[in-house]
Design a protein that fits this description.
Layout lengths: L1 H22 L1 E2 L4 E3 L5 E3 L7 E7 L4 H17 L4 E7 L5 H11 L5 E3 L2 H6 L8 E5 L4 E7 L4 H12 L7
Parallel strand pairs: 4-5, 5-6
Antiparallel strand pairs: 1-8, 2-3, 4-7, 7-8
């Protein structure tokens, strides 16, 4: 009986791993510009963990999570974590630039385009956050406010794989 339970447990574990691997897929590359004209491309971050956050200045839940993203960037940038905020504001830099300065946002902020929205599944609600592993796979997608604690719970397992071992 113990052997049967062991086999069942292993089968279930393998099933969950298979499902998790099937859900991972390569993150779509993008090339988007910051207010100063700097171009940010996802492919330039190979070997790093990248958090891509779709947000807007007028979005209450987005505003709520910004301090936690600022803290996460301070805490994890030196450990190979990048955060790229993709603003979906229709008014563009007119609204985004003053908001970024006022909020002291410390990570790169770029403006979205229709192609990146489509490539990331249509973005039906904001904030929507994607976590991309060092190999460029989307390993998590979260719609709604993310706290520092939630971010850390998703980052810590990924940080165990050093960039130099890929």
């Amino acid at each position: 009986m113990k052997r049967i339970l062991s086999i069942i447990s292993i089968t279930i574990a393998v099933g969950f791993i298979t499902i998790a691997l099937a859900q991972q897929h390569k993150a779509a590359n993008f090339s988007l510009k910051a207010a100063d004209g700097t171009s940010y491309e996802l492919t330039k971050y190979k070997g790093k963990i990248v958090i891509v956050n779709f947000w807007a200045t007028w979005c209450g839940p987005c505003r709520k999570e910004i301090p936690d993203f600022i803290e996460a960037y301070k805490k994890y940038k030196s450990k190979g974590v990048e955060i790229i905020g993709i603003s979906v504001d229709q008014d563009g830099w007119t609204k985004v630039t003053p908001f970024v300065k006022k909020s002291s946002i410390n990570c790169p902020i770029v403006l979205s385009d229709q192609q990146v929205v489509e490539n990331y599944g249509g973005i039906n609600a904001i904030p929507t956050t994607f976590i991309i592993d060092r190999l460029g796979n989307i390993v998590d997608q979260h719609t709604g406010t993310m706290t520092l604690k939630e971010l850390e719970s998703k980052l810590k397992p990924l940080l165990k794989t050093p960039a130099g071992t890929l």
